[in-house]
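Bug #77: duplicate submission created two jobs. Keeping one. Sequence:
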Amino acid sequence: MRRPNYFASRGFDRAGHRRQDPEWMAGALRHPDARVLLVRRAEVALDPAQRLVQVAAWEGLVPDHGLVFLGEDADGAPVFCVDVGVMADAEEASGADAFRFVDLRGAAMVLPEDEANRAAYASAMLTWHARHRFCGACGEPTTTDWAGHVRRCPGCGAEHFPRTDPVIIVLCTAGDSCLLGRQRIWPPQMWSALAGFVEPGESLEDAVRREVMEEAGVLVAEPVYHSSQPWPFPMSLMLGFHAPVGDAPTEVVVDTNELEDARWFGRDELTDAVADGGVMLPPPFSIARQLVDSWLGT
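Kept job's structure:
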């Protein structure tokens, strides 16, 4: 079995059936092994050993807009996260010693996979809360329920649930070459697979064909699914594909509103360029890198 992509999880129990049980939740907050992740905007707390800070629950914690139940550890210990920007006394009340808040991308360079999954989950959930304080239907302030997994509108009765934005990411291949693109804001040596948001009423396969045609003018026939990855920047799900387009590279027509450049790289050319620093690929924790590495056979 292929290992899950970084930010994913094999074993963490989200315990969704517990979210609607206030009595169980109150007991969970008193559980001696209950842990709380500290999040501040898009940053997570790391200790001096660069591990995820998971502090003991403290007096005064209640399931409100600043606290979300994430699930249970393998041993049954409840796991929560808290937005320290909303719950202003969280840092002091947590009793955590030396820790610092680190951007999630930076944290992903050092966190082990099980901790990265929790960090991604917590960050996405608390970002959703921060962006949905008001009802999208009538504008009234919303309240939380289900231990942070639903927001309700007392004005019109609407229920709002966490959402994930689907994004396709695709490595097109032709013979012994692959198609990579780059954006203007990236470092000069950075190249990656093509990607884009799935639009309403669109299948994943249609999204692959549209994005590749729009960005590079290359026709894709039958995309082949590779894997997926939670992508908490801020609330996306990356859906990875390989897309053979023929025996030889075709002409590339770059949409300069989307990309600075896109071009075909031969397998040996790309391997050598990465080795000598002429090409920088996305970080190893990204699905973009997994698509390239699996094609290269590394």
